[in-house]
Design a protein that fits this description.
Helices cover 30% and strands 21% of the residues. It is of the alpha+beta class. Helix 3 (72-83) packs antiparallel against helix 4.
Length: 134
């Protein structure tokens, strides 16, 4: 395993809002993360390297109840706010739970994020933004 949870945590600590997300993704990709999966319920995240070895963060916050049914349209509007830097990570996780999103998978090879519902059905896929060079 090329990276440790402390490496990931150090990069994640730099993220203040969704606007910082592309830099975070590129930083952890450089450290050797190829894929990760986040569970909204408690923030547990599993990070994988290119050999499919993985490490977990464990719970990051108090347990959230995932709403039923899925409300994808409202979630999309909350997601857009987060991507624009209007909400922090915990608020985003609460928004996911409130709208029926159980978690998301990040494929850093394909640079795509896939959100899934309670049954782990893929409900929304988005390209991970590239870093802007100023």
């Amino acid at each position: 395993m090329k990276f440790k949870i402390t490496d990931i945590a150090a990069e994640h600590a730099k993220v203040k809002s969704g606007a910082d997300f592309p830099e975070y993704i590129h930083a952890i990709k450089k450290k050797g993360v190829s894929f990760y999966k986040v569970y909204v319920k408690d923030g547990d995240t599993e990070y994988f390297d290119d050999e499919n070895q993985s490490i977990h963060t464990g719970s990051k916050y108090d347990s959230l109840a995932i709403s039923e049914p899925l409300n994808l349209e409202n979630f999309k509007s909350r997601l857009k706010l987060h991507q624009q830097g209007e909400t922090d990570y915990l608020t985003f996780c609460k928004d996911c739970a409130d709208h029926g999103i159980k978690g998301w998978k990040m494929d850093l090879s394909k640079m795509i994020c896939i959100y899934f519902d309670q049954a782990e059905n893929e409900v929304l896929a988005e390209r991970i933004p590239s870093l802007s060079i100023n």
